[in-house]
Design a protein that fits this description.
This protein is of the alpha+beta class. It contains 4 helices and 9 strands, in the order ββββααβββαβαβ. The protein has helices at residues 72-79, 92-120, 165-174, 187-192, and strands spanning 4-11, 31-42, 45-58, 64-65, 127-134, 137-148, 152-158, 179-186, 197-201. Strand 6 (137-148) and strand 7 (152-158) form a beta hairpin. The longest helix is centred in the middle third of the chain and has 29 residues, at 92-120. It is rod-shaped, with a radius of gyration of 32 Å. The structure holds zinc ion.
C-alpha cells in the first residue's frame, strides 16, 4: 500500500471539443486540451498540488504536449476557459492542517481563559497543575482546593511529584487521592502563583 507520495491526474473536461490542429502530425481539429495536476497525497487524501499545467493530446497521433510545448496562441485561448481549473479538493490536506492548527490554537486560548476565570473565582475541588523549581529541575504536582475563606485559599497538595508533563498525567491517574499536606495562601498570593499554574480543571 502506498501511504504517501505524489500522483499525477489528468482532469477530464466537462465538454469535449477540440481545441485546434496538431502541429506534430498536421491533423486538423484533432487536439484536445486538459489540465494535468501533480499532487502530494497521504493515503487517498490529496494534500496540495505542486504542479498544475495545461497539456494537449492529439487524438490522431497520440502526441502529448506539456505546457511549454504548446504554441502560445493556442495556450492563451485555452487558459480562458476550455480547460478545468484545479478543483479545491486537491487542497484538502492543506485545509485540514489549517483547521487542525486553528483548533489547537482555539483550545489553547480557551484553556488560558478558563484558567483566568477559575483563578478569579476559585471553587472547592478545583484541580491545579503546579510547577516549581527543585534542585535545578522543574517539578510538577497537583494542588486541589480544600477550603476557601473570604481572603484565603487552602490547598491539598498531592504526595507525589513528576518531572515532566507526561509524568504528571501518570501521577494523576495513579495517585488522584493521595493528599496529606496542606498549604494556605492568601487570595493575593494565588494571583501571583499564576505563572506556575499550567492548567486548572473544574468538575
Ligand atoms: Zn497529432
Amino acid at each position: 500500500m502506498i501511504i504517501f507520495g505524489t500522483r499525477t491526474k489528468v482532469l477530464s473536461n466537462k465538454s469535449q471539443s477540440t481545441t485546434g490542429n496538431c502541429d506534430y502530425c498536421g491533423t486538423v481539429g484533432s487536439l484536445f486540451a486538459y489540465r494535468q495536476i501533480k499532487y502530494f497525497h497521504i493515503f487517498w487524501i490529496p494534500i496540495f498540488p505542486y504542479s498544475s499545467q495545461i497539456i494537449t493530446i492529439c487524438s490522431h497521433c497520440k502526441k502529448v504536449s506539456d505546457q511549454t510545448q504548446i504554441n502560445p496562441q493556442t495556450l492563451q485561448s485555452l487558459s480562458l476557459g476550455a480547460v478545468r481549473k484545479t478543483p479545491i479538493g486537491y487542497f484538502t490536506g492543506i485545509v485540514l492542517i489549517g483547521l487542525l492548527i486553528s483548533a489547537i490554537f482555539a483550545a489553547g486560548i480557551s484553556g488560558a481563559k478558563k484558567k483566568q476565570e477559575y483563578l478569579k473565582d476559585p471553587k472547592v475541588g478545583d484541580v491545579y497543575e503546579v510547577s516549581y523549581a527543585k534542585n535545578g529541575k522543574t517539578m510538577r504536582t497537583i494542588y486541589r482546593i480544600a477550603k476557601l475563606t473570604a481572603d484565603s485559599v487552602t490547598f491539598d497538595i498531592n504526595d507525589y511529584e513528576a518531572d515532566s508533563r507526561k509524568g504528571l498525567r501518570k501521577l494523576r491517574e495513579r495517585y488522584s487521592d493521595s493528599y496529606s499536606e496542606k498549604r494556605q495562601v492568601s487570595r493575593a498570593e494565588l494571583e501571583k502563583m499564576k505563572s506556575k499554574i499550567s492548567s486548572i480543571e473544574r468538575l
